[in-house]
Amino acid sequence: MSLRLLSRNSPAFKCLKFFHDWPARGFSSAASLGSVNLKGRSCLTLKDFSSDEIKRLLWVSGDLKHRIKHEKQDLPLLKGKSIAMIFEKRSTRTRMSTETGFALLGGHPCFLTSQDIHLGVNESSTDTARVLSGLCDIVLARVYSHSTLEELDKEASIPIINGLSDLYHPIQIMADFLTLQEHYGSLSGLTVSWIGDGNNILHSFMMTAAKLGVHLKIATPKGYEPEKSVIQEAERLSKEHGTQLILTSDPMEAAHGSNVLVTDTWVSMGQEEQKKKRLKDFQGYQITMQTGSVAKPDWTFLHCLPRKMEEVDDQVFYSSRSLVFPEAENRKWTIMGLMVSLLTDYVPQSPMMKF
Question: pTM of whole model > 0.85?
Answer without folding.
Answer: yes
